[in-house]
Specification:
The protein has 3 helices and 18 strands. With 278 residues, the chain is mainly beta.
Length: 278
């Protein structure tokens, strides 16, 4: 939609200007791409509900057409064609079983401008609702960031665990869930050595961390994606200028995990994203 693209472009341009002069072009492009991703029509700002489903009879959900339930490893929905709940562009008329987001062939439904996304987390099925016209998205004015600091681009090493392990970590909704951890990223900052536990995710190491800027200057914790080491090496580069806000900084309906034990640094990391602008 042209209006969405125009608003997104304005936000990105303001953010790049705020970053100041002298930042590497690659980082400025990353900033622009990040703002576009956050503010897109069905991005994190548009999440208005997460409904957790139970096995059993289908039940109505607030503000959502059809009736819903978990059905083994899939989501079950029963709807009438007149409710205009579309799957693959065709109205659901009767019963349909839907694959959640982490399956090989996930399903996404559409109702008007909204997207309905079946999800699974630790074996529990749910339905997420994204509304591009929600007040949260319309009120978004950008992300506050620290200026780029080349001193926060650090040479590091990855130390994989002999056996990966799962740590029970508190999530933003108050429940504990398992976080799979595969190794430590080890680096020096201000003359001291630190390590952060990471999860292997495709070609990257995903880190959830805290530091002493949390609260006074930044959100309660942040996330960082570190490119995984190449074959035959453990060398990686940690760039804290690319620290990002977790999805729950943009919508209360995400269930982001807080940092695992040991991933709260006793120093300030004055780089990356601070908060969403009020």
């Amino acid at each position: 939609m042209p209006e969405t693209e125009s608003a997104t472009d304005t936000t990105a341009a303001t953010t790049v200007a705020d970053a100041g002069r002298g930042a590497p072009p690659g980082w400025l492009r990353w900033v622009e791409a990040r703002d576009v991703a956050v503010s897109r029509a069905h991005g994190p700002l548009a999440l208005v509900a997460t409904h957790w489903l139970e096995n059993g009879p289908v039940e109505p959900l607030d503000g959502v057409p059809g009736r819903w339930a978990a059905a083994g490893r899939r989501v079950r929905v029963i709807a009438e064609a007149a409710e205009a709940l579309l799957a693959d562009g065709v109205p659901v008329d009767g019963e349909r079983l839907l694959n959640p987001d982490l399956s090989a062939d996930p399903d996404v439904l559409v109702h008007g401008d909204r997207k309905l996304v079946p999800i699974v987390r630790e074996g529990v099925l749910g339905l997420r609702v994204y509304d591009p016209d929600c007040a949260n998205r319309r009120a978004f004015s950008g992300i506050d960031r620290y200026p780029h600091d080349p001193a926060l681009v650090l040479s590091a090493r990855y130390e994989p665990y002999v056996h990966g392990h799962v740590e029970q970590v508190l999530n933003a909704d108050g429940r504990e869930r398992g976080m799979e951890l595969d190794g430590d990223v080890v680096f020096e900052l201000a003359g001291d050595e630190y390590r952060l536990a990471a999860s292997r995710s495709g070609g990257a190491l995903a880190i959830t961390f805290g530091d002493t800027t949390n609260g006074p200057d930044t959100f309660g914790f942040r996330q960082l994606s570190v490119p995984a080491p190449g074959p035959g090496t453990h060398a990686v580069v940690v760039d804290f200028n690319r620290a990002t806000l977790p999805p729950c900084a943009f919508s209360d309906h995400f269930i982001c995990p807080v940092p695992p034990v040991g991933n709260r640094l006793p120093v300030a990391v004055a780089g990356g994203e601070k908060r969403r602008r009020p």
